[in-house]
Amino acid sequence: MSSPTEEPRPPFPPFDEESARAKVLAAEKGWNTRDPEKVALAYTVDTVWRNRDEWVSGRDEVVDFLTRKWEREHDYALRKALWTYSGHRIAVRFQYECRDADGQWWRCYGNENWEFAPNGLMARREASINDLRIDEADRRIHGPRAEGDDSEIPI
After folding, report:
1. Averaged over 110-123, what is the pLDDT?
2. CA–CA gap between residue 110 and residue 96 (Å, rounded)
3. What is the rounded distance in angstroms from the CA atom of residue 18 to the CA atom of residue 122?
4. Is the peptide bond between 154 and the residue preceding it cis, with omega within 30 degrees of 0?
5. How confident is the model at residue 73 (pLDDT cuts 50, 70, 90)?
6. Does the pLDDT of residue 154 top 90, yes or no?
7. What whole-number distance in Å separates Cα of residue 98 and Cα of residue 65?
């Protein structure tokens, strides 16, 4: 029996294309809630992250990191796409848009490498991200993906 802090998260590795895509869409949906406590439950209690130039270790640090992130990234909306998968690893590309406290809009492009524990929780996440200043009129992502929409993100 698993502990409440390590509740299994299907789909489980090893991944095939269908289960990898489902994992990617589930991660996108979770992050679009902008709920740090809820999002952190998808990661092992000892998860390790690299996000840009910051290292995060463990769920408590994940919650702190995400809280800070979404306090400064207003109207955050994310799209993820499967890049590749093998065994217990998945690589994704993503874009998100948000505005800062001054009202400047940003589109952030990135790639992530994910490694999963057998229970389907993410044990490792490495993200490389580039930020592009955009005009509000140039926005492409206006909130979470509609139910049933599995379209690719625009390049």
Report:
1. 98
2. 9
3. 18
4. no
5. very high
6. no
7. 16
pLDDT of 3 over the 60 cut: no
- Tell me the one-letter amino acid at 30: G
Contacts of 23-26 with C-beta under 8 Å, sequence gap 24+, read: 23/90, 23/116, 23/120, 24/80, 24/81, 24/82, 24/90, 24/92, 25/80, 25/145, 25/150
Give the position of tokens 């490694």: 115
- What tens digit of pLDDT does each residue of 13-61 get? 999 999 999 999 999 999 999 999 999 999 999 999 999 999 999 999 9
**Residue located via tokens 């769920």:** 59
Predicted local distance difference test score (pLDDT) of residue 1:
42
SS (H, E, C) the chain: CCCHHHCCCCCCCCCCHHHHHHHHHHHHHHHCCCCHHHHHCCEEEEEEEEECCEEEECHHHHHHHHHHHHHHCEEEEEEEEEEEEECCEEEEEEEEEEECCCCCEEEEEEEEEEEECCCCCEEEEEEEEEEEEECHHHCCCCCCCCCCCCCCCCC
